[in-house]
Amino acid sequence: MAFVIFLLAYLLRRRLDNLAHQDHDGLWRRLFRSGRTTTPGEESRVWPGLLLVGLPALLLVLGDHLLTAAHWRILGYPIEFVLLVVLMGVPGWRQHLEAYTMAWGRGDMQGAWHHIRDSLPERHRADAVTPEAMHLLLSRQFLAAVFERYFLVAFWYVVGGIGFALMARGIIALRDHWPQVAARKRFERWSELVSWLPSRVLSCTFGLAGDLSGWLRSGRSTLLSVISTEQTLIVGANSALTGYALDPARFAELHPDECSRFADRSVIAVRDLLNRSMLIWICAIALLVIAGIL
């Protein structure tokens, strides 16, 4: 039944994303509002944020065990469904990418930058000094956003239930929305910790969903590495994609007459790779359920 709940929540969340509805970042910011005031010199404390996220997660884990022990597990499914819809989702990205690729196709790089600027981390916006760098930065952020809003939640939901999924997604939200900047840097290390294993699993999935031989040549080198989650995903995706979809310089060298179509082709290739990867995950979860493991 948990698989059915996840599948229904995923389908509804994708529908809401396509309509650019239900962006829940505001909920996280309101939850973390208490972190705005802190004692001078203690701006880097992480325990208040971890408590705000960890306590509800712990209650969900305990509630799940109690309902299972009482054979009333079905009562928890509506709560899990609602929470999964809240935890997942990348609303607005489809509209931004469509506007971005149209501007790129017209050769309007300033317009392309305008459409995706707010979707990029502030600390990296200065890196987009060329169209090629801008596109790679956008691709990294898109891969990371879909991973953190879908695959990370799915992984920890399957491994530990809704409490673990809430904790993992909450740490990502703390990294992005906690009021104290000094603490965000420490939350970033926590986010890398909860993302390490699922990001490597997704990188392996890229190989199955794309060019397996290409992924075996270069993508597998990231599996046991200590590089960041974003770097793991971009290397894995690049190695699994054909046609230099994430190598704009090489694409321009081989196809100089089609440079205006590069952004559109690249975005479609990355999006299709992610969709196929999620399909593989869903099939794998279904097989685990059939086998009685989940």
UniProtKB/TrEMBL annotation:
One GO cellular component, as annotated: plasma membrane
Coiled coil: none
Keywords for this protein: Kinase, Membrane, Transferase, Transmembrane, Transmembrane helix
Claim: Transmembrane is one of the keywords in the record: yes
Record-linked InterPro entries: Beta-lactamase_Reg
Keyword Kinase tagged: yes
Residue intervals passing through the bilayer: 46-67, 74-93, 150-168, 273-293
GO biological process per UniProt: response to antibiotic
Record GO terms (molecular function): kinase activity
Protein name: Histidine kinase
Originating organism: Marinobacter profundi
Upper taxonomic lineage: Bacteria, Pseudomonadati, Pseudomonadota, Gammaproteobacteria, Pseudomonadales
